Amino acid sequence: MPKKAAGLLLVCASVVVWVSCATNSNHYLYAAQPTANNIVAYREDPNSGVLTLLSVSPIAAGPAVQALALHPSKKYLYAANTQENDISLFTIDTSGVLTEVTPRPKTDTAPTLLAMNSAGSFLYVGNSGANDISVFSIDAGSGQLTAVGTPLQLGLIPNNMQVSPSGNFLYVIGAGLPGSIEVFSLSAGVPNQVPVQITQVGTNPYGLAIDPSGAHLYVANSLPDNSISEFTINSDGSLTALSTIGGGTLSSPIALLIDNSGKYLYVANAGASSLSAYAIAAHGSLTLLTANESVPTNSHPSFMVSDPSGKYVFVGNSSSPAIQSFSLDPGTGTLTSVTSYSVADTPTSIVVVP
Question: Is the pTM of this model over 0.70?
């Protein structure tokens, strides 16, 4: 999930000074392509959001590689291989090259989701074929995974999940009419088998976002609701409903992203091929940014990530396989299209490495 990075363009009074303030180091973007069993890799220019395909791309991965997760150290990348029921560990070198470390630790059936605590000490794997979550501890020195306990049994098919910024709670959503969200407490990284709370949300929820402070949680409810559920997160991890918003340009909202500052929430509307932007108030309520009520995208945007600086947002499109780059104005929340990059196969997960 995107984290804060130091802002280097603080006070630059002229074009000449701006150049001297610019970020010179590269970022690297990786996207999973399950039908091709590989990971496409780009260099991102952190001053423009422009992507350049690496010469080593694509990089071989496991069968139906579906989800990616980046370790906070930026040294390790994890990939869930849905058809092989295991996880790949890749080391990341300074030039962006990935090198897999074998063997691949086994999960339960059909791993499709990955989530990690902010300390990088535990990896959680959502298994859609078994309706459970495999838990692994992470060795800080090598990145290697060790299975912990037995899989956490769920009362739903996991569609999305996130760990709270504190690392004390795990939130899992599942589709249905209505959908639901299950809350689990984490003790030293290990989930309690009995949920703190199970609560209903809208129909067929897929998008899930928690603000950087860990105070509020948002769920995107797809068809037929076309809505966003807003919650306050209580000290015990349980959720209190604030409100549900709908209408406007929301059309099969399938993914959510909160920017690095925690001020704006973005919605990927798969049904309208657009993004919507909202301002987040101190008490967690959302207000539509009319200037960004409907930002056009390629067909069927399905997920979004921010780069480490928070200045750019990357969108994965599934119907016309592509990765799009947008600049983000931190003062207004406005998104502006940079460019689009066609990919050979549908991307399903993206991470950006500083």
Answer: yes
